[in-house]
Amino acid sequence: MQRLASSRRLLQAALAPAPARAKSSLSAAAVAAPTSENGAALPKMPGFDYTPPPYDGPRTEEIFRKRAEFLSPSLFHFYDRPLNIVDGKMQYLFDEDGRRYLDAFGGIATVCCGHCHPDVVEAIVNQAKRIQHSTVLYLNHAIADFAEALASKMPGDLKVVFFTNSGTEANELALMIARLYTGCNDIISLRNGYHGNAAGTMGATAQSNWKFNVVQTGVHHALNPDPYRGAFGSDGEKYARDVQEIIEFGTTGRVAGFISEAIQGVGGIVELAPGYLPAAYDIVRKAGGLCIADEVQAGVARTGSHFWGFEGHGVIPDIVTMAKGIGNGIPIGAVVTTPEIAQVLTRRSYFNTFGGNPVSTAGGHAVLKVLEKEKLQENAFVVGSYLKEQLNKLKEKHDIIGDVRGKGFLLGAELVTDREKKTPAKAEISHVMNHMKNMGVLVGKGGFYGNVFRITPPLCFTKEDSDFFIDVMDIALSKL
After folding, report:
1. Where does this protein have coiled-coil stretches (predicted)?
2. 475 and 438 in contact (C-beta within 8 Å)?
3. C-alpha dihedral over 469, 396, 433, 413, to 10 degrees?
4. Within 10 Å of residue 357's Cβ, how many Cβ atoms?
5. What's the pTM value of the predicted model, to 2 decimals?
6. What is the DSSP letter of 345?
7. Kind of pairing, strands 441-442 and 100-103?
8. What's the rounded Cα separation, in Å, for the pair 420 and 277?
9. Contact, 332 vs 165, CB < 8 A?
C-alpha cells in the first residue's frame, strides 16, 4: 500500500502540469508547428518523408502509473512531463500524438544507423523467421559471420570475439580476462570514468553517482586527463605520471590492466588530453598489465575520424569492449582480444547463454554493412565537425556555455554559471532541455554534475538537422 501511494504521488507530480488529453490518431503531418510563448513561429524542422501509423495504445498517464507501480523505483526520466515515444524512423522520433522530434541523443549513443533502419530491420526479421535461439553449442553462421566482420575492423592481432548482452557484461569479462592472463588483481581506471554497474565494473567506475556501498576491491583510480577541469590542462604526459605512482605506491609493482574510454561518455563527453593514452599504455605494459579500451560509446564510427575511438590516440589495446552502436539498439556487446589472450578462458568453462544470439548477431552484421554502404563514418566526421563549429559559435554568444568538446557525433557542451570558476549550471540545463523538447529537439545530459549536454545523434544526422538543433538551442538558452 505504501509503495502504491508513493507511485500515485509520483504520477501526480509528473503529470499535473498539463491536463489529460483524449486519444489521438494525428499523423506527423497533421501536427501543427510549435510556437513560442509569445506566439512567434519557431525554427522549422527539416522535412522528412515519413508518417507514422496512428497510435491508439496506452497514454502517458497510464504508462507512467504502471511504471511507477511495477518497475524499479530507481528509474528516472527526462523532462517535466514524461515523454511517451511510440515510433521512430532514422534520426526522428514520434510521440503518442504523432508529433515529430529530432533525436540528438540516439538512445544514449546507441542508435547509429538510424531508428528502424530498413536493412537492419530486414536482417532481424529474416533471422527471427528462421530461428531466434538455439545455443552456441550448435553451429550457426550468423555469429561466425558477424565475428569475422567485427575482426576485420580491428587493428593488429585483435581478432577473437566473445559476445555478451551489454557493455557492462563486456567490461566485466574484459576485467576478468586481464586478471586471469596476468595473474594479478589490480586494475587502474580513470576518475570520472564509467564502465558499468555490476560487481567488477562498478569498482572500475569512478563517479560516486553510480556506485553503491558494496565491496569493490582491486581498482585504483588515476587522475583524469581532463583538458577543461584537470590540474594539468592538455598536458597528457603529466597526468600519466599518476599512473606510474599508483603502480609504485599502491600495488606490488605489477598490475592486471588499465581500462579507459577514449572519450568519456557518461562523464560528460570528456576528451582525454593529447599524449595521455600512449604514455599510460607504455607504463601499464611495463608493469605487466593489459590495456583495455572501452568503446561502448566512442566506438563504431561515432567519432567520425576513426572507426574506434582509441585509434584517434595512436594506440592499439590488448582488449577492446563494445556494445550500444554495434547493435543499433539490439541488446548486444562484445569483447575482442588476441588469440593468445583469449586462451585463458579455456582453463575453465566460460559460457553465455544469449551471447551471440543469432537474431542479435544478424542485426549487428547488418549494422556494419549499412555503416559502410551509406558512408556514415564520413558523415559523422563532416556533419559532426560542422555541428561542433556551430556549437562554438553559440559559446561565443552565450556565456553560460563554458566548454564545447568531442569529435564526430560524440559532442558535449558544458553549461556553467561562471566561466572563471566553472560553476556547474545544473538547474539551468534542465530548463534548457525542457524548452528544446517543447520546440521539437531531444538531447541528453551527463557529466558528474549533470550540467553537460550529451549530443550523440544517429550517424545519419544532416547539416539541416544540425542547423535546426542550433537554432532551437539558441532560443532555449536565450530564455534563461
Report:
1. none
2. no
3. 90
4. 26
5. 0.92
6. G
7. parallel
8. 28
9. yes
581478432: which residue's cell? 159
Task: Quick: pLDDT tens for 397-455.
Answer: 999 999 999 999 999 999 999 999 999 999 999 999 999 999 999 999 999 999 999 99
- Predicted confidence (pLDDT) per residue in 33-76, tens digit: 455 555 567 899 999 999 999 999 999 999 999 999 999 999 88
Exposed (0-12), middle (13-18) or buried (19+): which is 99, by Cβ within 10 Å? middle
* Edge-to-edge order in the sheet of strand 219-222: 160-164, 333-337, 319-322, 290-294, 257-261, 187-190, 219-222
The C-alpha atoms of residue 345 and residue 297 are separated, in whole angstroms, by 26
Please measure the distance between the N-terminal and C-terminal CA atoms of the chain and give it in whole angstroms.
41
Q: What share of the chain is helix, strand, coil (3-state, %, to 5)?
A: 40, 15, 45
What 3-state DSSP class applies to 3?
Answer: helix
Burial of 109 (0-12, 13-18, 19+ CB in 10 A): buried
> In this structure, how many other beta carbons lie within 10 angstroms of the beta carbon of residue 89?
20
What DSSP designation does 90 have?
B
Enclosing H/E stretch for 245: helix 236-250
User: Is the Cα dihedral 149, 383, 425, 430 positive or negative?
Assistant: negative
**Which grid cell is 324?**
550500444
8-state DSSP, 310: G
What residues contact 27, with CB distance under 8 A and at least 6 apart? 51, 52, 54, 98
| Residue 294 half-sphere exposure toward CB, CA atoms < 13 A | 28
Query: Which residue type, as a one-letter code, is found at position 13?
Result: A
